Structure of isochorismate synthase:
Amino acid sequence: MSSLTQVTTVRLGEHLPLLELLPEENMYTWVRGGEGIVGWGIHAQTTVTGPNRFADARAWWRSQLESFTITNSVQGVTSGPILFTSFSFSPEDESVLVIPRVIVGATQGNSWITWIGGGAQPALTEVALKFAPAELSWADGSISIDNWKVRVAQAVAKIHNGDLDKVVLARDLRAQSNSPIDARSILRNLAQEFPSTWIFSIAGLVGATPELLLRLKRGMVTSRVLAGTISKTGDDDRDLALAGSLARSSKDLEEHEYAVRSVAEALEPFCSSTNVPESPFVLHLANVMHLATDVTGALIESKSGVDVFTLLAQLHPSAAVCGTPTSIASDVIAEIEGMSRDRYAGPVGWIDARGDGELGIALRCGKIDDNSIRIFAGCGIVAGSDPEKELAESQAKFSAMRNALN
């Protein structure tokens, strides 16, 4: 019988600047407003593919937990061993699972550290970065602007024909840098510009998502749905008027209703009660505003074994990133979108030893590969969509990552 691996968690006390602790390589983040968790080093990692990837991920995580002996003097959320996950949008692409060797968490003025393996507590050092602006050369991604607008028109035609109600079409841009791209500077810029989003970094995928796909904590489920977008101008009075127009827009309200309904229907079989607000609120970000709804529920106590992986298999992909009906929208995306999304628009976040966790949808993000980066944006297409307006919306969504790279 092989010996177990020691996992130790102790309280640190003071609130630490999480994003300032990260080394250059093998670092992982899930931080919002300065609170959350970061990790570095690799204790174990794997990839999963195929239609059973969520169940396969659960099996791998449980097998890893069986090899641990855990000493945890904190016993709070995100303490103990943590699995960072970045799932692909499509089952055909690889999803990445990583258990960091060191994990540091901070919330409400307190912080703690978990490390895997024997030995003394790892030292923590704040890293001062030199923000030398990289010289970036931008190019079209998988398809040109003109071709993407044609695809939007094709999607609208399918909706008018009654094939489906909504489909989300994504596009990408690529940039080449004159030097290796440092994810840490991107993360710090995103955290400063978008403090209300979840700042994530897992296996080269970095971003700031405003959309919480799933939070499971002690039997309570939360999902924040975003669908319906309008660009901000920077003028407060003008943006207030635009927020009002977004809240009244029949096109955006229709798109939002599809997304909310898909989440509520996915959670209903597992919950004794759910709460779905009658109308959305307007979420203000630095560059855009979204219609937003927080769907909540309480798990049925008699349904044992329901965990994050169970719910992910039901929730992904939601109408917010795929369409309605989901199966038909997924086929339309495969037919006309013209690119692999990789891990863009897939679930991203963390899962703990109890099967609780917090995962967003990988939006406003880019995938780094040494001196290059590929960034993504998607738009919900409904009957009232106009290709030019959808293009403008995608450009506004690109601006988050483009600005963070400067």
Observations:
- Residues 5-128+137-405 form a domain with the Anthranilate synthase fold (CATH 3.60.120.10).
- The CA atoms of residues 102 and 220 lie 28 Å apart.
- The chain has a mean pLDDT of 92.
- The chain is about 25% helix and 35% strand.
